[in-house]
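[job 0412] stage=fold_complex status=start
inputs:
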Amino acid sequence: MQRAIESVGIPTILIAALPPVVRQNGTPRATAPRVPMGANAGEPHNVEMQTGIVKDTLKQLEILDSPGKIVPLPYEYIAKV
Amino acid sequence: MSLKKYDGLQSEIYVPITPQPVWAPVKKELKDMKIGIATAAGVHLKSDKRFNLAGDTTYREIPWDTKAEDLMVSHGGYDNSDVNKDINCMFPIDRLRELAKAGFIKGLAPVEYGFMGGGGDIEAFTDKTGPEIAKKLKAEDVDAVIMTAG
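[job 0412] stage=fold_complex status=done
writing structure:
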């Protein structure tokens, strides 16, 4: 999906919980906060964390200059299972 | 030195193939960008048809001004408990609206997209669903797309 959107000329960035999977699938740009699958954009109701993740992810649009990079983000949420 | 060559000889070890890179350059500053959301997390309007949890290559359109409480998830491939508490965990629409209000981005795309990723009919996603969503985003002059998947 990301690749399809990118192929029509629209830049994309993906927030990944599983960086090895998105690398394998050929992501053009991604960020990876330390989050479980299902809370890629951060802990439920943690507005500060979610804003941080979304903002830092968008900022990478202006920073990244070549495909395939996955940028770790300094946010951590461990779900209580 | 000459090496003996066998046509069609393959390793028995599975070697994963990473696809060729794709890259659309960023041409604007964030504050001038209209940002869309596309998520593989199975997000859709509560009033919409649910995804078939056994596999579904269709997608749902979500207007940019949809209230968070009018959204839900149907996805059989991950633990939905966080996203059921707060849709913004996978579909940060409230956060993007706040960032637009604050002038960090110009605004949201008029329509966002939800689909059910995590496998299934990859060919249909690659050849049909992906290009369809891409075409619609292009027609709406969306400058960049933020995604959650994987």
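[job 0412] summary: The two ends of chain A are 30 Å apart (CA to CA).
[job 0412] exit 0
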